[in-house]
Amino acid sequence: QVQLVESGGGLVQAGGSLRLSCSASGIVFSLNAMGWYRQAPGKEREWVATITSGGSTRYADSVKGRFAISRDNAKKTVYLQMGSLKPEDTAVYYCNTRSVYWGQGTQVTVSS
Q1: Would you say 21 and 81 are in contact if contact means Cβ atoms under 8 Å apart?
Q2: What digits encode the pLDDT tens for the residues 43-70?
Q3: Taking the chain, what is the end-to-end CA distance rounded to the nearest angstrom?
Q4: Measured distance CA(13)–CA(33) in Å, rounded
Q5: In the Cβ-directed half-sphere of 74, how many Cα atoms lie within 13 Å?
Q6: Cα separation of 108 and 93, whole Å?
Q7: Distance of alpha carbon 1 from alpha carbon 8, whole angstroms
Q8: Cβ-proximal residues to 44 (8 Å cutoff; 6+ apart), any chain
């Protein structure tokens, strides 16, 4: 059974940083692309970043240059380093793999 567990969310002031983690089980982690998504109140879930099994990364324009996705295959964990945070980054952040498996989410709140 695939399980994704996010952690690292919290309350931070604008301009601050946070690092989210997502631990995976039930999959051969090193062979799977991993992604981060987010959902703000009243809005649809949106894609944030992806890292392939080979380590290639892609970002939404809204976070490019501020966020960095990385992975540790030995720990079966994907990270999202978030910097220069803005109030509009406030959302529940979700980890995803294979398009169908989701974690429970972790809340990120950026105060102005």
Answers
A1: no
A2: 999 999 999 999 999 999 999 999 999 9
A3: 40
A4: 31
A5: 0
A6: 7
A7: 23
A8: none
Is the predicted pLDDT of residue 71 greater than 90, yes or no? yes
Instruction: Determine the residue type at 46.
Output: E
The answer to whether the CB of 36 falls within 8 A of the CB of 20 is yes
Alpha-helix residue ranges (DSSP H) falling in 1-112:
none
Eight-state DSSP code of residue 85: -
22 pLDDT more than 90: yes
- Residue holding tokens 């079966």? 76
Other C-beta atoms within 10 Å of 64: how many?
10
Which SS3 state, helix, strand or coil, does residue 8 take? coil
Is residue 78 within 8 Å of residue 34, measured between CB atoms?
yes
Does residue 60 sit in helix, strand or coil?
Answer: coil
